[in-house]
Amino acid sequence: MTATAENAAPPFIRLRGITKAYGIGDALTYALHGVDLDIAKEDFVSIMGPSGSGKSTCMNILGCLDTPTSGQYLFGGLEVSRMSRKQLASLRRYYLGFVFQGFNLLNRTSAIENVELPLMYRGTPAKKRRELSRQALKIVGLEGRESHTPGELSGGQQQRVAIARAIVTSPAVLFADEPTGNLDTSRSHEIMELLVGLNQEKGITIVMVTHEPDMAEYSKRIIHFVDGHVATEKEAA
Amino acid sequence: MLFNTILLALRDIRRNVMRSVLTILGIIIGVGAVITLVTIGNGTTAQVTGQIASMGTNVLMISPGQHRGPGQDSAAPSFTLQDVQAIRKEIGSLKAVAPVVSANATAVAGNKNWSTSITGSSNDFFIVRNWIIESGRTFEQAELLTGRAVCVVGQTVRKNLFAEDDPVGKNIRLGKVSCQVIGQLQEKGQSSMGRDQDDLIVMPLLTVQRRFSGNRDVAGIQLSVEDSGSTEQATEELIILLRKRRHLADSEEDNFNVRDTKELAAMLTGTTKTMTALLSAVAAVSLLVGGIGIMNIMLVSVTERTREIGIRLAIGAFEHEVMLQFLTESVVLSSLGGIVGIIIALISSYGITLMLELPFLPDFQIIIIAFLFSAAVGVIFGYFPALKAARLDPIDALRHE
After folding, report:
1. Where is the ABC transporter domain (chain A) (predicted)?
2. Which ipTM did the prediction report?
3. What is the pLDDT along chain B (401 residues), one digit of tens a residue?
4. What does the DSSP 8-state code read for residue A106?
C-alpha cells in the first residue's frame, strides 16, 4: 500500500531525513536521527518503541507542536518545515487533532467548555459549538458529565474528554500519544474501538504512539522506533 | 473575533476566582491607600492654611521678656500705654495697634457659668486679629476712656452662657463685676495650635486694668502692618524705638520680644508639608506593596498559565489571539481593581475627613496616577510572561515546569 502510494502522487504525510537535536556543544544529543516515514490518507498507524526511542518526539513534529532541527516534512503536498508559526497554527486549527499523554485539559473548566475550545478558535457559532461538543462527549461515553471539571473526573474520563476535544472538529489527522496509558483494559479496548470507528467511518487518519502490543493490533500498520529512527515497518495482523 | 476573545478572558477571570480576587486586592490596596492618604493630607493642609488666615495677616506681637525656649521666659518690666502711643506716633505703615492685658474669670449668666479668659484692649484689637462683629457693636470712645463694664463675647462663651439666645444687651457677671454684653464675635474655630479661639471675652483695656489686674501695666502689644508695608521693617523700627524707651544700653540684650505671625505661619506650613510628605511616602509604600502583591500572583501563576497557553496553541489558537486574551484579562482585572479601589478610597477618606472635621479635597491627579500605576503593574505582569510563553513552541509551553 505504501509502495503504490509512492509511485503515484506524494503520500498525505511524508517525512524525509527528519532530525531533532537538543542542547548545544558537547551536550548536543539527537532524539531523532533522520526519520523517513510515509503515511497515507485514512491510514491508522501505531508507533511503538522503547522509552527514549524518539517516538513521542516524532509524533510532536508530525502534530506541528515541535519543529525539527533538519529534514523535510510534507503535509498534503505542503512543505511544513518552511511554514511560519501562524501557518502552523492554522494547520493545527483546521486539520489536526491531538490527544496528549497527560490529557492537558484546562483546569477549573467544564468538560464541555474544554471540548468547545478548538471550535471557538475556528469561529464556530455558539449553538453549533454546543451541539458538536455534546455529540463528541456522547461518542466517548461521557453523556451527563458535560459540566464536570477535570478535577471531578477520573483519569480515564479525563482521557476521554481529551479525545472528544481532538475529534470534535473532525480533523483530517488525529494524533494520539498513549491514549490508553491511563486506562484499565476494558476501557482501553473501548477507546481503541472508538478510534477504529473514527478511522473507518469518518476516514480520519490516525497516528498513535503506544507501548502496548494489544492496542497496536487495532491499527493497520505498526512502526517500531529504535534510537531515533524507524527500525521496522509492518502491516498489522 | 474580538468579542470571542473578550468572552474567553471574562470566562477565565470567572474560573480563577482566587487569582482574580488576589490581583484585584493588590490593586485596591495600592490605589485605595494612596488616594485616602493624599486626600487626608490635602484636607489638613487646607485647614492649616485657613487657620493661618484667620489668625490675621501681617500681625506683630510684642511681649516683655525674651523667649529662650519653653518655660525660660526671662522676667522684664511690662509696657505702658505711653509705649503704645509712641508706637502709634513714630512708626509708619501701621494699620492698628492694640494694647492687651489678660485675666481669667468665671462668667455667670442666669444659672449658667463658664470659665474663660478676658482680654482688655481697644477697638484696634478687632482689626489686628481679624475679628468680625456678628451682632451688636464695638466699644465707644467714652467706654474706653472711662473703663465702663461692657464686653464683646466670642461664640464659645455665647453658646455656654446663652445657648441660642442673642446675648446683646444682656448682663453677665465676671467675678464681682457685672458687665453688659454689647456685641458678639463671628466664629473662627480652632487655632492651628488646637486652641479654641472663640473662647474669649473682650473688654475695654482700662476696665480690665482696674477691675481685674489692679495696675496700669500693658502686658502685650499686638499690631498689624498695612498690606503694602513690610513686617520686617516694622519689626526693626519697633526694636529701635522700644530699646530707646526702655533705656537699654548697647551692651544689653532686648528685654522684650517681637514675634511676626508670618514666621509662625511659615513654621506651621512647614510642619504640614512635612506631614504631607510623610503621608505620601506611606502611600507610595502601599502602592509598591500592592504592586508586589499583583506581581507575585501573576508570577506564581505563570507555570499554570504557560501550560494553558501551550494547550491553546496546540489546539489551534494563534499567538495574537492568546495574547489578546491575556491582555484583555489583565486590563479588565486591573481596571476593576482600580475602580473598586477608587470608590473605597473616596468613601473612606470622606468618612475620615468628616470625622476629623477636615475639608474633603480629593486630588484627581493622584487618583489617576495611582490608578495608572497599579493598572500598569497588573497589565505588565499579566501580559509579558504570557507573551514569552506564547512565543514558545507549543510543546515547550506544555512541558513548562
Report:
1. 13-236
2. 0.91
3. 667 677 777 877 888 888 888 888 888 888 888 899 888 888 888 888 777 777 666 888 898 887 666 665 567 888 988 899 899 888 888 889 999 999 998 999 888 889 999 999 999 999 888 898 999 999 999 999 998 999 999 999 999 998 888 889 999 999 888 999 999 999 888 776 677 889 999 999 999 999 998 888 899 999 988 877 788 888 888 899 999 888 888 888 888 888 888 777 788 788 888 888 888 888 888 888 888 887 787 777 777 788 889 999 999 899 988 888 888 888 888 888 889 999 999 999 999 999 988 889 888 888 898 888 878 887 888 788 888 888 888 888 888 76
4. P
Q: Are B271 and B41 in contact (CB under 8 A)?
A: no
Count of residues in chain B: 401
Residue B259 lies in a domain: no
B317 to A165: CB separation less than 8 angstroms, yes or no: no
| Cell numbers describing residue A20 | 531533532
In a domain, A18, yes or no: no
Give the number of domains in chain B.
2
Burial class (CB in 10 A: 0-12, 13-18, 19+), B259: middle
CA distance to partner chain A, nearest, from residue B391 (Å): 9
Asked if B308's CB is within 8 angstroms of A93's CB, the reply is no
Same domain, B136 and B231: yes
How many folded domains does chain A comprise?
1
Is residue A84 less than 8 Å (CB to CB) from chain B? no
- Report the residue from A66, A93, A108 with minimal CB separation from B15: A108
